[in-house]
Each structure stands twice: as C-alpha cells, then as structure tokens.
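Students often ask why we bother encoding 3D structure as a string. The short answer is that it lets us treat folding as translation between two languages. Here is a chain of 131 residues written in the first language.
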Amino acid sequence: MTDNLLTRGQLERKLSQDIQAFYRRHLGQQPSKVTCQLFDTKLAVIIEDSITNAEQILLEEGKNDLAEKVRSNLDDAIQPELKQLIENVMEVKVVDILSDATLSTGRTGIIAVLSSIPKVRNPESIPKVKK
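And here it is in the second language, the structure alphabet:
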C-alpha cells in the first residue's frame, strides 16, 4: 500500500512545482524558485521573485503603499485556491494559512497549518516540530 505514496522530498517538490505553475497561471508571474519544507503538521513555503510586473512598476514610481495594498489584495484573492492546491497535493486539510511578502526582496513566505501529518513513504524523514 505504501508503494503508491510519495516520499517527503517528492511531495515537497511536487508542491513547489504546482505553486510555481499556479503563480504563473494566476498572476502572470514566474517565480524563479519555490521551496517547500514539511514539518509535522506545518508547511513552510518560500517563493522567490513573486512580485508581479504591476507591483514592480508601482515600487519604481515610489508608490510603495499602493504596491503593498495590491500585494495584500492579491494574496487575499488567491488564498482560497492556494489552500485548495495544498490540500490536493498533501491530501490533508489546511487548517490555517499565513502569508506575507517583502516587496523589496521579491520574496513571499507562506506557512500552512495542516490538520494532520501527510502520509509519505518514509514518515521518519519528516522533521518534528518542538512544541
């Protein structure tokens, strides 16, 4: 039965690729790198070069507040679909999702709290989170 399960690394890579495709499809932005790391029921995601062209133009024009508002609204708008994507790949429910972007570096960070530890072929490879 465990033959069909992915390893932790395969699951993290699949999610990284799917998130990268999601950003390209929904925001027209191709992140240069997406890193996912699973810790028990927590998932950390770092997205490099996640800032859209529109946000970049606003920053170049000195309209930082507007760029921040655009980013916040984009994050709010895509969050339900991003949550669904994570649930589909991890095959567990997402209890909470937290995200923030740093426009000056172009990075977005996401933390997803999962309802349970995803099933993987080698469960001992998932780092435990100290409580």
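Translate back mentally: The beta strands are 33-39, 42-48, 94-102, 107-114. Keep this in mind for the problem set.
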